[in-house]
Every structure is written in structure tokens, then in C-alpha cells.
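Lab meeting, action items carried over

1. Structure of the two-component assembly. Owner: GW. Status: complete.
Input record:
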Amino acid sequence: MRDIHTSAITDAVKKLCMDANWNLEGDVLRAFDRALATERSGAGKQVLQILKDNAEMAKTKRIPYCQDTGFVVCFVELGQDVHVTGGGLYDAINQGVSQGYKEGYLRASIVKSPFNRVNTGDNTPAVIHVDVVPGAEMKIMIMAKGGGCENRSKYKMLTPAEGMQGVKDWIIECVKTAGPDACPPLIIGAGIGGTFEKAAILSKQALFRELGSPNPDPMLDALEKELLDRANRLGIGPQGYGGDTTALGIHLLTYPCHITSLPVAVTIECHAHRHKEVTL
Amino acid sequence: MIRAASDGIKDVTTPLSDADIEQLKAGDRVRITGVLYTARDAAHGRLWPLIEKGEKLPIDVKGQIIYYTGPSPARPGDVVGSIGPTTASRMDKFTPALLQLGLKGTIGKGYRGQPVKDALKQHKGVYLGAIGGAGAVLSRFIKKLEVVAYEDLGTEAIRRLEVEGFPAIVVNDCHGGDLYQDGQKAYAREEA
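Predicted assembly:
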């Protein structure tokens, strides 16, 4: 067994929260550059250039690049030979979120209840998913998920007869209905298969893969490229002002499913793609 | 007041009149100087019963612009943190009534519903788009910030901003023009 103290977990989460909001990941910046090379729309090009400048300014001033600093979705891969000491794992993560958002001048965007709408004041609690895996390490991945784009995420139970074509059309439909509301250029995570909740979780996990990297499954990789091309033919463009860059990437994850089912969950992510990870 | 600058951008100074609004067309780039009031979901939720009862609002919206945003906290010495637009359609329920009270403009991102577009025509108003996710850059144009109502709402409180050259683009004008429709039509290609 390897001991990991909760103070190390809190500290790691705190740093990830600040880093994710101040420093846009390199994969997104590289995707902006690729888009600038192909975008035909003048307004679209201008938006992409401003987004690059915005990222640079945020990094320099250590302020968030978007005022929506997100709902912290935390995926933990917990090695089964790790022993967490000093308290509870979930408390340690939430403590890290609280410290990161307060000390990092990040916005508190979470309300205590969907009905009373009273702000919790420190952006807690996080949504936490823990997977137990072999080994003696703990990998913490956080996404500070924006609300505007999350509001356009969708789920549909297709029938097996609707098949591949049904899946493709549904994902494109989700991009269309997200439109300018979700801050394009978008990044799309789709979870296909499993059950209702499994597909939704997969759609979030899919977003952690590096933008521009191939899907390890060649069939899914070809499908992602086809869908990205279709999405970028919609004409929505950066901010919806019209253009060729509607999405920067479409990432797919699949899981076995029941003989009756073909679940497809689509998480819509904006270009302010706050994702960071660390291994303890 | 609206003045067309030599760089093709329209300089907009608040407050705005019907005649000012008529000069703005979908696709126009603008630079706003003057006052913006921030309000989003929770603040609109509190304004709504007052509007319904015909009571006085905590801000006079006549000739003014509401910016749909909830800024992040300012670092010591800064006026504001990051301050980009939020999705406008969540405020659609409230906008026609505010336009009727004399509000001239709103700033946000994303589509507006038909009742809002109709109200822009009827009451001479404009819907402007600011770049979503560019809140750091947009903070540069905010010169002064003061909470004027509902302080307990935190980021959702109503703030009075003094801005200089705040950049936006006309999405829906009072003539029925729609930048999203025109722009997207121009770049849509037949599906693969």
C-alpha cells in the first residue's frame, strides 16, 4: 500500500482549478491556429485571433479567460494499492476547489439547490467520479465545465435499427441546436453505448483526449473525422457569425450496450476548454 | 449617439434614442462608450415582479443597455475580473417588457426568440453580440464598476459599468436584420 495524504490531494486540486482557468491548454491554442489557416470568414478569423489574444492576456494577468469559471467535474483514477490518509477523498477534493476558486479570483457559479438558487460562495461541491484501477498512483483529472455550453448538451435513446446513420445525424443535430448559444468553435464529446448514465459519463471523459490527436480505434477515428467535416459544413462558424470553424474536434467513446438499446449522450463544450490533470 | 468612424466601426455613446437605434444594422461592428448595466438570470428574476406590478425598478432602463454577464471577482487593484457575455435567450422572457419600458439595447451571445426580435422592431431596440469566452480581453474596456442593486446575488448583482470603446457586433437590429441568419447562410455548404 502507498499512503497519499488528503492535504496533497487538496493542494493538487486547488492548483488544477487555477491553472485550468488561467492557462488555456496548448491543444486548444494549436486548434485555434489550425482553424485560422482554413477559416474563410473574415469575422470568423477575427474572433479566433481575439480568442488567442484573450488566452495570452489571461495567462499574463492570471485572470480567468472566461468569466464562467465552470462547474468542477473531477475524474479520479484511484490505484487500488493507494491508501488515502488524513480524511475523506471527496472532502479533500472539495476543499481544493474551495481554496482554488477563492484564492484564484475565480467565479463562484454553483447554487445550493436547483430550487432555492442560493450561491454556495466557493464553487463547491464538485461533481466527482472515481474509478478504481490497478496500481499505486492517483490520477486526478478536472474539467471546469462551462454552463452555457452544458445547457446545450443532449441525450437520446436511439433504437438499434437507427444504427450508425442515426448516431451520426443525432450528433450533428446537437451541434446545430447548440449553435451560437454554446460559444463555438465547439468541442464535442459523445458517449455511445452503455446505459443512460454510462453514456453521459463517457461523453465527458471523451473530452479529456488531446484535441487533434487520433482516436485509438481506427473505425471511431474515421467516424470522428467525418462528423467534424459535416459539423464544419453547417456554416455556424466562430461565435455563430458564419464561417467554417464550428467545431474544433469531435471525440467519441463507446461501451457495450443492451440488445434493445443504442444510447447516445452528447456533451457540448465551448472553446474555453478548461481541462487539466495530474498524477500523484 | 452614433458616429461612423473612419475605420468602419460605429462609435456608440449611451444613452440611446430611437433615431440612434435606427442607424444600427445587423453585422455592424460597434464600440460602446458610456454606461452599461449588468443583469442576468437572478437579477431579471427579481425585476420581473416589479415590472408585472408596474413598480419602480432599481435602475432606470430608459435609453440604456443591459449587458448579460456575471463577472469573475477583481484582483486587488483591478476594476473587474473576466467579463464576457452569457447566453441571452435565458432572458428572453423578460426582454420585451424591458424594451417597452424604454431599454434600447442588450448585449449577450446566442439566438434570441421571435418575441424578442418582434419587440426590437416595435420598440426600437438592438441586440448586440460580444465575444463569448473573451472575458479577459473585454475587461480592458471597463473603466469603473459599481454594484447598484441586489448585492446579495454576488456575481449576479446589477452593476453599473462605465465603459470606453467596448467592442460588440449588431446581431439583431430594429429592421428585422439578423447577423446569425445571414452569416451562417453565407458559409453553409451542403452536408457530406
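2. GW to write a short summary for the group page. Key points so far: Chain B touches chain A through 47 residues (CB under 8 Å). The mean pLDDT of chain B is 97.
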